[in-house]
Amino acid sequence: QVQLVESGGGLVQPGGSLRLSCAASVVIFSVYDMGWYRQVPGKQRELVARITSTSSTNYADSVKGRFTISRDNAKKMVYLHMNSLKPEDTAVYYCQADLGTLTYWGQGTQVTVFS
């Protein structure tokens, strides 16, 4: 069983920055592909950014150039650095750990970008 705990969400003005963190309780963290997803009410959860076990990354087009995903295998952490935030980035952000047939989710952290 993998437990994921997100933190770092909050209120921020447009153009501001936040760093989300996800702490994983797992024996071997490095084998997991990790991702950040987000969801707004009434819409499907969408991929924001993903980092594989070999540290390859991919991003949603809407966040490319603004968000950066990173991981620290020694600390069993994954981060999402969010810059130049826009109101449309407002959502609940979820951390995901993926091991092929096994997928785990955190409880989510709210990010609100408001004027």
Quick overview:
With 115 residues, this protein is mainly β. 0% of the residues lie in helices and 52% in strands. The chain is built from no helices and eleven strands.
Describe, in plain words, how this protein is organized in 3D.
- With 115 residues, the chain is mostly beta strands.
- 0% of the residues lie in helices and 52% in strands.
- It has strands at residues 3-7, 10-12, 18-25, 33-39, 46-51, 57-59, 67-72, 77-82, 91-98, 103-105, 109-113.
- Strands 2, 4, 5, 6, 9, 10 and 11 form a seven-stranded mixed β-sheet that branches. Strands 1-3-8-7 form a four-stranded antiparallel β-sheet, with no helix packed on it.
- It is globular.
- 30% of the residues are buried.
What labels would you give this structure?
single chain, 115 residues, seven-stranded mixed sheet, four-stranded antiparallel sheet, 52% strand
Rg, rounded, reads 13 Å
Helicity, as a percent range: under 10%
Helix-strand pattern: EEEEEEEEEEE
Number of strands: 11
Distance between the termini: 40 Å
Strand fraction equals over 45%
Low-confidence stretches: none
Mean pLDDT: 97
Largest sheet: 7 strands, mixed
